Amino acid sequence: MGKLDETMFFDFGDNKPNDVRGTLKTVYDALEEKGYNPIDQIVGYLISGDPAYIPRLNDARNLIRKHQRDEIIEELVRYYLADQVAGGKKEKN
């Protein structure tokens, strides 16, 4: 049957982590500018899914809603663990 029997793959590329990082930076800056504790507010959003934790300033609320919460958590864990692993390797040398 040709192409109808083949599995198709879609690759978002490596832009997704950078996109999430950029969004988190924008959100963090907007929260600081509004005088909120950025960590508390982002955690509140990630746990509840309620966008009211994120201000509209600099379009932060719309930007963060473009990402699934699990994608954001995945990127945070990836970034944290990469830093920990790299840090651990540096200490051994």
Automatic annotation (TrEMBL):
InterPro entries: IreB (IPR009309). It comes from Pediococcus acidilactici. This is UPF0297 protein R0G89_06690. Belongs to the UPF0297 family. PANTHER family: UPF0297 PROTEIN YRZL.
